[in-house]
Amino acid sequence: xxxxxxxxxxxxxxxxxxxxxxxxxxxxxxxxxxxxxxxxxxxxxxxxxxxxxxxxxxxxxxxxx
Length: 65
Description:
mainly alpha, 2 helices, rod-shaped
C-alpha cells in the first residue's frame, strides 16, 4: 500500500509541476524525495518478501553446519 502511495505522490507532484512551473525547484525536490522513498520501499519489499515466513535466525531451527 505504501509503495502505491509513493507512486501516486510522484504523479501528483509531476502534475503540480506542470501546473505551477514557477515552483519548479520545489516540485523537483519533492519528486526526488518520493523517488528515494519508492526505491527504499522496493528494497524493503525485496528483503522482507511479504507473504513468506520470516523468522529470527537466533531462534529458528537450523541444521548444524
